[in-house]
Amino acid sequence: MATITKVSPLAPEAFPELPAIDGVRFATVEAGVRYQGRTDVMMAVLDPGTSVAGVFTRSATRAAPVLDCQDKIGGPYDGPAAILVNSGNANAFTGHYGQTSVAEVTQAVAKATGVAVERVFTSSTGVIGEPLPHDRIVAQLEVLKSGLNRHAIEDAARAIMTTDTFPKGASAQVEIDDKTVSIAGIAKGSGMIAPDMATMLVYIFTDAHVEQSALQAMLGAQTDRTFNCITVDSDTSTSDSMLLCATGASGVDATGNDAFAQALETVMLDLAQQVVRDGEGATKFVEIRVTGAATDADAKIHGLAIANSPLVKTAIAGEDPNWGRIVMAIGKSGAAADRDLLSISFGDILVAEKGWVSPDYREEDAAAYMKGQDLVIAVDLGLGEGKSTVWTCDLTHGYIEINADYRS
């Protein structure tokens, strides 16, 4: 497997300082699932009464852990819960072997922690089509149990990485009824990112109390505005999973609270954008703003058509203000568009308006703008009030190098 040594130029300066979330403890271990010399398994144990919501890939080739988690979400939540994640092997396209591995791991976690097996959620990420050596994970469960620590969330973020060049974390705090409620989340994802629910793996924790059904509804709605608005390479993983856990340890009921929902969305968007900033081989972070569409749904279709276009993404990598490729992507998207109403901007530079090149447009200005690391491409369709924003990165030779060597 390719070894990623160079940190993305778009990475944050450091892992953020995340608040410890009462009611959840973390531990990591080097189990040798595939990697050597680094942690590759993390476990989180959550207090009794923690509600757990989840969204998952809609891939027709979902991995065994995804199917198991989907079956468990929405069940009783009076007892404790546990999450176990391994990197290096996706336990996907492994038939009945995959199901056996999930059963072995969940039953062993339940025995080690005293958590009901119906409340043990697992995820696996890495190569597809190879049986998971679950015995290596099971052999480390006592080590994991003895190492549980409420302050080890950064270690957990590192243990779930595959081709990621940096661990991803984000947090927010909000005052509700004169009490502070905390939210902290971690994510992994770098390639195979065109979510149809979330990114590859995301785990978010809060000490608020939120009823499970309300937590599930909130997560689904905010996923559509965050993780479902990012793309690196237009490919949806077999393993995409996001779990949101509310321990209730703060004693604050945030069910239906707008301030809490906004704080959660802030954390989710931060994590989603970090995934894009760690896109395999990425050198540019690109925000695509679409306005004037017939509907919001059409605006999102146009935005993703631009964001997923290899021609657009390679032009961005080459710092080439080739706005004709934007026109092409809009034309092929399938959503409503009118050539003679279309306007395009790069940052503050108006490139084209109402179907023509702007009379004030100078290509040298746009070329200079494209040299930046953070770019905005704005499109107005001139058709209605629909709008959407999506985020992507450029497509460089580094993406090829990483993925050509991924299994070797």
UniProtKB/TrEMBL annotation:
Residues of the site described as Involved in the stabilization of negative charge on the oxyanion by the formation of the oxyanion hole: T125, G126
Which GO cellular component does the record give, naming just one? cytoplasm
| Binding positions (substrate) | T162, K188, T199, E280, N403, S408
Identify which residues the record assigns to the active site: T199
Q: Which GO terms describe its molecular function?
A: L-glutamate N-acetyltransferase activity; L-glutamate N-acetyltransferase activity, acting on acetyl-L-ornithine as donor
The site annotation (Cleavage) covers A198, T199
| Reactions performed catalytically | N(2)-acetyl-L-ornithine + L-glutamate = N-acetyl-L-glutamate + L-ornithine; L-glutamate + acetyl-CoA = N-acetyl-L-glutamate + CoA + H(+)
Question: Which pathway does it serve?
Answer: Amino-acid biosynthesis; L-arginine biosynthesis; N(2)-acetyl-L-ornithine from L-glutamate: step 1/4; Amino-acid biosynthesis; L-arginine biosynthesis; L-ornithine and N-acetyl-L-glutamate from L-glutamate and N(2)-acetyl-L-ornithine (cyclic): step 1/1
**Which InterPro entries does the record associate with it?**
Arg_biosynth_ArgJ, ArgJ-like_dom_sf, ArgJ_beta_C
For this entry, list what GO says about its biological process.
Answer: L-arginine biosynthetic process; ornithine biosynthetic process
Q: What is this protein for, i.e. what is its function?
A: Catalyzes two activities which are involved in the cyclic version of arginine biosynthesis: the synthesis of N-acetylglutamate from glutamate and acetyl-CoA as the acetyl donor, and of ornithine by transacetylation between N(2)-acetylornithine and glutamate.
Q: Which family does it belong to?
A: Belongs to the ArgJ family.
Q: What is this protein called?
A: Arginine biosynthesis bifunctional protein ArgJ
> Gene symbol?
argJ
